[in-house]
Every structure is written in structure tokens, then in C-alpha cells.
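Researcher: Structure for this, please.
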Amino acid sequence: MKKLKNFAKRFCKDESAQGATEYILLLVVVVGLIMVFKDPIKRMVSDKLGQLQNQIQQVNP
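Model: Predicted structure, C-alpha cell format:
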């Protein structure tokens, strides 16, 4: 029984995989946000690229 108790203590204190788990959760959240806001992001990037293209054409007539 003492071995099981010691194992449980060591298991609870072991944080070796905690960093990887946090990165995976963060990645899942970022991908989820991108999926939810995909259309507004796409529109905004397209508008900015259009503005940039117009400004380049004004510099190089």
C-alpha cells in the first residue's frame, strides 16, 4: 500500500508532459478561433492586399 501511495505522490508531482499539453491546448484554441473567424479574417486580409496593390500601382504608373 505504501508503494501505491508513493507512486501517486510522484505521479501528481511529475510535470514533464505538462508543457506539451499546454502547447497542444493552446494550438487547439488558436485553430478553433481561426475556424470561427475565418471569413472576417479572409475579408480583412483581402481588403488590405487590395489597398496595398492600389498603392503600389499609384507609385508605379
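Researcher: Any notable elements?
Model: The radius of gyration is 25 Å. The mean pLDDT is 85.
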